[in-house]
Specification:
By secondary structure, the chain is an alpha+beta fold. It contains 16 helices and 26 strands. Strands 1, 2, 3, 4, 5 and 6 form a six-stranded mixed sheet that branches. It has a five-stranded antiparallel sheet with strand order 10-9-8-7-13, with no helix packed on it. Strands 20-24-25-26 form a four-stranded mixed sheet. The N and C termini lie far apart (75 Å).
Length: 635
Amino acid sequence: MMMNRSPQWRNGQCLVYARCSKAAQDASLGDQYRQIEAFRTEAALRPIRDPFEDDGERGHNEDRPGLQAVLEYVRTHPNPAKFNEDFIPILVYNVSRFGRFDDEKKIFYYLVEIERYGYEFYSVQDGLRSRGNIADFIQLIIRSQQAYQYTLDLSEYGIRTGCSLSEKGWWSGGSSPYGMDRITYGMDGKPRYRYITLHDKTVEKRTLDGTLIESFPPINDKGKLRSAYSDKLKSDKVKLAPSLDKAKVVESIFRWFIVEGWGLKKIAAKLNQLGVAPPRGRKWLKGSVRDILRNPAYKGAIAYGRCSDGKHHDVRFQKLPQGYVAQMRRRDVAKREYVRRPLEQCVLVENCHQGIVSPEIWEAAREKFALRKRGQLGVRGRGARGSKYLLSGDGLMKCVRCGYHFHGSTDRTSKIRYYLDGGYHMGGREVCAMTMVRAEDLERTILEAIQEAAVNGDARLFQDEAELALAIERELAAQSPTTERPDPEREALQDKLSAIRRKREEAERFEKEFGAAASDLVRQIQAQEESLLRELAARRREAPEPMDARERARLARETARHQMFVKAALEHGTPEERKRLVRDFVAAIEVDGRKRKIRIGMYGGGNSSLRVAPPRGSGLRGNRSPRFQHAFWDY
């Protein structure tokens, strides 16, 4: 193997990192290790420990376990270095193996972070070192941009391929809709095998007459189970076909909705009563039923581009006389965005495969949704979207029984605002009991708690920020002549540790429910938590030194500015400003409908900040609607 240059490292030590997205890639882990081993032997380097690796991890994912393990190792094993020869190299196959970051400049963040602790990055194939000369620096920029360009090319190729396959009547890829199986076709155009995805994400490979050939168990991907890749050849094409057993469930859903006139929640409750396994999750919900009724795949059509979550391109599909064209525009800032397009903006091709229901029945369901949206079936249309509910929209408020979020709503008769259990709202009593919490009282309780924690009564006594800052400065001067200076880096580590601990607690709850499927995620988070604890312990507090007048004045101004901002937001802020403020102070709100208790978890207070608010009364005074009796809680 030819090297561009022969760098010299005095210690004769090295680390090794390898990454591979898929086992079928040209530069698999085995190929990378062989190239790195050849260079390591030639450069007389010995590895300090076993290689770090990420097998099956995308290059744009910055939470890769192997990459994070590299950062943790260098931080906990610093190597004092004065000259370039003192640095310990981290060998990788090439720049793209280190990462295909969405921002090509992001690689320099990791290079600088590694070099802080006496390590450097070296690309074996490219012969580039991060501690090299200006030519190496320019080459790193070029290689990083090329790696990102490869990601863009893959994104564009995937969109164009999906558009082309769909236009020809083939399934473009991904999981098949509920009640549909995948049939593979060879190059001769004849069907070969049937692939069936079970509820537990297992994929069964069967012959066309139903004989089982092989089963592919689900893959544990960062604590989540997903279906394994099938063994179909790249030259094979895929069409959808009705499932042998689930197709009857789909037929029943359309019949209940069109003929019987049932609502979405009633259909979901009926399926839960019958014990039918849902498409995803633990129970059938309104959204699951709605997705089936709106999917044109059940009438034999393919609609490519209905839902997408890409982050590199904005896409628009245009129908021309010669066919569909995917018009793409690259985004300057890569950001994942979920897009749901109407059928008129998708690649829509009729009669691609055998449907489960007739086109007439499917169109009748679509027309019924249109009538519901226009309010001609007695339905309120968009409900409480865009309303002034401070605690809904992002899962802040959850039910401890079913685990679903609470939604904001308003009673049409009394105009009283309340929060309703999402499990009951979307799935009926088969999912959870009806639990409603009065919005005004709960929001007032939380805002008062935030005002007490953040403002602490000081800002209410002063209308002017300068006057409040002067009072705080006097208090600081009177407290102690040796008030300890704040340590921003230590405080940042403590905040990060608190966030990691909350993340671990959520993962442990997930592990109790799904077992081994979340064990890897829990271990990864625990490793991150232990690393932060070591880093925090290594950063010992220095002996407190007296604050001078300038430091006291600066700290007083910052404190006063923050308290006055919180006071203004609480008293005169818009609903969005109050929402952001609540998220800054409140970690979680847990509602137990059976015990009629609410627990409010505040940031920065540990267990002492968790408050139990028992009800002081029952029923809703002045409301004559019987379904609201014993439903609201007073505080």
